[in-house]
Amino acid sequence: MHIQISRDFRKKTKAAVSSIVIFVFVYILIFLFTILLALACIGGGLWLIAAKPMFLTIMLGAGLAGTGIFVFFFIIKFLFKKHINDRSYLTEIKRSDEPELFKMIDEIVKEAETNFPKKVYLSSDVNASVFYDSSFWSMFFPIQKNLTIGAGLINTTTKQELKAILSHEFGHFSQRSMKVGSYVYNVNQIIFNLVNDDASYRSSIEKFANFSGYFSIFASLAIFITSKIQWVLAKMYSYVNIRHMALSREMEFHADEVAAHIAGSISLEESLLRLELANNSYNNVLNFYEARISKNQSSKNIYREQFFVMNFLADQSELETKYDLPYVKLAESGLFNKSKLNIENQWASHPSTEDRVAKLRQLNIVKDTDNQPAKDLFKDFEKTEEKLTAKLFSNVKYERGRTDLEFETFKTEFETQYQKDSFDKIFNNYYDNKNPDSEVQENLLSEDIQFDHLFDNEKVELVYTLIALESDKKTIEAIANKEFVLKTFDYDGRKYKVAEAKKLIPEIEKSIVEIKDQIVKNDSDIYNYFLKISENQNRKSGFISLYQSFSDYDKQYEDKFKLYTDLINATAFISMRTPFEQIRHNFISLKSLEDQLKQEIRFHLQNPLLISELSEKDVKDLKDYIEKEHIYFRNEEYFNSNLQLLMKAINTLPYFLHRKYFLIKKEVLSLMKDLEEHHRVEKVS
Asked: Which of 79, 222, 476, 582 has a beta carbon 3.0–4.6 Å from 70's, enabling a disulfide?
């Protein structure tokens, strides 16, 4: 297979290679400097010792020589560094274990004209990747790659989609031109190691410094010199890495093209568009069980549960089904993204899904497909899922023996939790990212407005357009203030220079005001619509009272949350080096804020709905905190157990505030839903 290299690929390859050449030139200059410095330091040290042999000159000479040696070692330490990937979370599989899967990999390797992976692993997540252990010498000697396939990916794809995804991974190494990217990657790793990964180097210098007080002076000098070298290399890392990221994005398009030639454009497109939903579903299951660690509950098969959650969420979003899997359309994947701003993210290693799909549609390569579940490639995928689940939960520490939740119990509890934590579909996502207007007033409706008109797609789009405009405004303000290194950006289909950013802000502000006015008008209509139908049902006073309760809490929320930020600021000294007298003074000053905190915690603990999500231990600790006076510092020593209680109380406060806000909001929306359902029944009767 040969794929024509694009002009952009050539251009960005040249830019990446040029940046490496410049780096090498700068590195050679630094290398020569460190050699001269090392020779000068060693020669100076020997001269000092020879000139007047005595303990002082021996120590000073040795220290000076050590400075030169350490600085020189800093610049070559990457030669001895080898990056070993953590494999503890992986499970190796062999051809004898899963012959059908290996047969598919054989086909991909043959068509992509690349090498078979050294080893094949299963991971627990929703991903596939090719990795290898690398060092400086990786640039000169060939290295066999290892393939990792996530069980969460296999569980949510067809055979053809999995083939497309694996073909993409091998596509990175299928052409000679692609290997430039691997070379750039290795250089990047070297620079990163020099700039950031110096823990062992600093540890060696500290040992050198601790050997003698004389040596500590020269250790500080070595660190000072290497910090200046690091500053230069950090600038080079930024320069090289930006060009590496640009090349990486082009390589993704090329790997997609390889995958399309092997498995077809449609299979890769559909798997890409479903990937976010599949990953979100997997994380939902993990979050579900994380909240149940205190109850000692675990899963027997998280993948069976992931599949259920994926289809449940798809049903909630009214997605179509194809091959017994959710079919996510491109328009649905970015449904709530109304931003008009387009900036090429120079630090992104992957292009956006939208851009990748657009390229795949241009290719439009059609292949025969096998749309059976990818899990059918395995002899007994359910058994494999259970083994991976057991491995995943073996890392969790339970106070008592854990119990696997029955699948039907999981389904019931997940659905219940989801309904409890979300708003009814009747509102069409209108309130998912906005709140009822707390400033609305009663007035006569100017027309006979219907419920569906208040919450139609046009009104929902207003909400997400406002969110996008406000976000765009902040970003463009940052561009105007030169917080981003850019030359141009696109807004609403037009290209702008950075110098034009300030002129664009008033236009966006005008649009924000216009959209806000429309939303305020709609919120007023919503409120008065429900006033009208509640009056017809003799429930007007109850609706007004509940809505007013929400409005009051909405206005109090910022003040209540300010207590949390004040407490965080007032306790920041605990994690800093602070004089003892200042510590005592700070705890005295903290007392008034702590009294307010105890009052808030005491109040919220009386609400069963708020504490239902907390573990028994958390509730017990909070009660212990509010019922006693705790000493945090005495005799120049912190009382850590009491400090932990204090910090737990502080960190629980925002949960209480946010959860209460959510519950009041949900209560208002539930009443609105009930009023509307009764109104519809009345209309029919």
From this structure: 222
